[in-house]
Amino acid sequence: MASGKKDYFGLGRIVSIILAIIPFTAWILGMITRFSEGKIVAGIIRIFGGWLIWLIDLIMMIATGHIWRLLNI
Known about the structure:
Helix content is 60%, strand content 0%. The protein has four helices and no strands. α1 (13-21) packs antiparallel against α4 and α2 (23-36) crosses α4 (54-64). The chain is globular and about 30 Å long.
């Protein structure tokens, strides 16, 4: 990931954490983020299983400011 680029469309860290707290919002935004990065397989996985990794995404967003990237495909 490019330095300085943040997840959830470059929104501030606090706004991104608030959005990540809400499971449905985190699922949709995680999916859109992966598709916008050109990671089609990872986006498809998030469509069907993104709600399973919501807690990991939340922890990663708080700790690093980025969502969890299981696949870089």
